Amino acid sequence: MITYYRDGDVLVTSTGIRMDGRDYRLSELARVWHSRGRRQWSAVAGRGVLGLAVLVPVLIGAIGISIAVLVEASTAVTIALVGGGILIGLVALPLADVLLEFVDRSHDRGSHPLEIWAEVRGTRVLLLRSNNRQRFGQIYRALQRALDQDTVSQGDQA
Q1: 115 Cβ partners below 8 Å, 6+ apart?
Q2: What is the dihedral sign for C-alpha 102, 104, 107, 109?
Q3: Contacts of 75 (CB under 8 A, 6+ apart)
Q4: How many domains does the chain divide into?
Q5: Are residues 19 and 67 in the same domain?
Q6: Alpha-carbon distance 119 to 11, whole Å?
Q7: Contact present, 26 and 12 (Cβ < 8 Å)
Q8: Are residues 50 and 104 in the same domain?
Q9: Largest CB tally within 10 Å, which of 44, 77, 78, 114?
Q10: 84 φ/ψ angles, rounded to the nearest 5 degrees
Q11: Are residues 31 and 85 both part of a single domain?
C-alpha cells in the first residue's frame, strides 16, 4: 500500500481514502471533481480592512507633511509637522510588514472554499471542503495520483 497524503483528517492511499471520517475504496469512486464554493465576503472584507490599516498611517504622515508645506506657520511648527509626518510613516513600516503577512495568509486561504466531490454508488458525495488552497491542492493531487495508479493497476489485471 502506498500513502499519497496523510494529515490528521485525511488519508489517501493506493487502496482507498479517508476524508471527513468516512472511508471509501478507490474502486467505489466512479467520478471525482473539484469545485469552488460560494464567495466568503468576510474574507474579502478582512483583506480590505488590512489594506486600509496599512495605508492609514502613510496617509496621516502625508497629510501632516502637506499641511506643514501649505500652512504659513513658524519654522518650529513646520519642522514639527514634517518630523511628525515622517515619524508616523516610519512607524508604519514594521506594522505594514506584519499586516502584509496577514494579507498573504488570507490569499492562501482564498475567498472561496474549495470542495472535492465524488460519485459513489450513483450518489454525489462531498468528500472535502477546505479554505486552505495549498492543503486542498496537495490532497487533490494525491487523490488523482491514487486514482491514476488504481486505473493502471486495473488495466494490468485485465
Answers
A1: 34, 35, 36, 37, 126, 128, 129, 130
A2: negative
A3: none
A4: 2
A5: no
A6: 18
A7: no
A8: yes
A9: 114
A10: -65, -40
A11: no
Distance CA 103, CA 52 (A): 11
The reply to whether 83 and 129 lie within a common domain is no
Residues 57 and 98 in one domain: yes
Domain containing 98 equals 41-108
Long-range contact pairs involving 87-95 (C-beta distance under 8 Å, separation at least 24):
87/61, 88/57, 88/60, 88/61, 88/64, 89/57, 89/58, 89/61, 89/62, 91/57, 92/54, 92/57, 92/58, 92/61, 95/53, 95/54, 95/57
Nearest-angstrom CA–CA distance, 44 and 41: 5
Judgement on whether residues 47 and 103 belong to the same structural domain of the protein: yes
pLDDT in tens, 53-106: 777 777 877 787 777 778 777 888 888 888 887 887 777 778 777 777 877 777
Cell numbers linked to 63: 497629510
